């Protein structure tokens, strides 16, 4: 059995020890780093399936590290969950905008962190062999290849995190239908709904930045005020 390998970057040694032991007990391989620099050195070696990153670290900012990881092709798609003790939701929104897939406020229950990590890993994996066969969804110049888990607009590759890809795929498979946030959450298997509610709009914004010709005037993912989002069937007309 292959064990997923996780990196936890957090300077709270007591918390990191407790969480690390809990995740190891659930079958994960866990490395711990207490600083941004130590985390960078670990990540440079590669081989991690997901990253759990504290927002506040003694030698740097978790937000800056998130931005750097998303700018690096080697770590662009690495599932990333951000931990934050800050009370201001603005910090969480900024983290999501910079590329975090999810966030978890401190204090938290280790089993909730485990559920979140498993959810991120599921979304990052190709569909199971007994699931729906690979397909290419085309909407004008936009193409979604479910086999390669890739998105292109014309000749341009669109960089999306695993979570953003899954969200776009849900909308595309319901093209022409307005989907409420609850319906989107239900379709995204295994995601803790209470955390996703505040972040969905940020993820849609990042999707638009990747796939729209003019993100400020979207033609593909439309907002239906008071109802949710609609993926346009007809595009590029």
Structure description:
The structure is a single chain. With 237 residues, the protein is α/β, with parallel strands linked by helices. It has helices spanning 13-25, 36-44, 62-71, 89-98, 110-124, 162-173, 181-187, 193-211; strands at residues 5-9, 29-33, 50-54, 56-57, 60-61, 80-84, 102-105, 136-139, 142-145, 150-153, 156-157, 178-179, 221-224, 228-231. It has a 5-stranded parallel β-sheet, sandwiched between helices. The protein has a 4-stranded antiparallel β-sheet with strand order 8-9-10-11, with helices on one face. A 3-stranded antiparallel β-sheet has the order 12-14-13. Strand 9 and strand 10 (150-153) form a beta hairpin. Helix 4 crosses helix 8 (193-211), helix 6 (162-173) packs across helix 8 and helix 7 crosses helix 8 (193-211). The protein is elongated and about 55 Å long. The termini are far apart. Residues 192-196 have low confidence and may be disordered.
Entry summary:
The protein has eight helices and 14 strands.
Range of strand content: 15-25%
Globally, the shape reads elongated
> What's the helix count?
8
Using the CA coordinates, give the radius of gyration: 18 Å
Helix-and-strand structural type: alpha/beta
Mean pLDDT: 87
Distance N to C terminus: 50 Å
Sheet with most strands: 5 strands, parallel
Helical content class: 40-55%
């Amino acid at each position: 059995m292959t064990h997923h390998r996780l990196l936890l970057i957090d300077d709270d040694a007591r918390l990191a020890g407790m969480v690390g032991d809990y995740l190891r007990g659930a079958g994960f391989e866990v490395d711990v780093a207490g600083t941004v620099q130590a985390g960078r050195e670990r990540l440079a070696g590669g081989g991690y399936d997901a990253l759990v990153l504290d927002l506040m670290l003694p030698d740097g900012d978790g937000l800056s590290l998130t931005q750097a990881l998303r700018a690096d092709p080697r770590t662009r798609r690495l599932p990333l969950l951000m931990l934050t003790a800050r009370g201001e939701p603005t910090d969480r929104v900024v983290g999501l905008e910079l590329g975090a897939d999810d966030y978890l406020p401190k204090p938290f229950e280790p089993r909730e962190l485990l559920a979140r990590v498993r959810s991120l890993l599921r979304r990052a994996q190709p569909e199971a062999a007994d699931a729906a066969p690979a397909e290419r969804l085309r909407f004008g110049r936009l193409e979604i290849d479910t086999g390669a888990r890739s998105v292109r607009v014309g000749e341009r590759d669109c960089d999306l995190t695993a979570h953003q890809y899954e969200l776009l795929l849900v909308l595309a498979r319901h093209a022409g239908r307005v989907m409420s946030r609850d319906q989107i959450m239900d379709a995204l298997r295994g995601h803790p709904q209470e955390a996703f509610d505040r972040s969905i709009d940020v993820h849609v914004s990042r999707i638009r930045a990747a796939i729209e010709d003019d993100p400020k005037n979207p033609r593909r993912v439309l907002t239906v005020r008071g109802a949710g989002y609609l993926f346009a069937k007809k595009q590029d007309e």
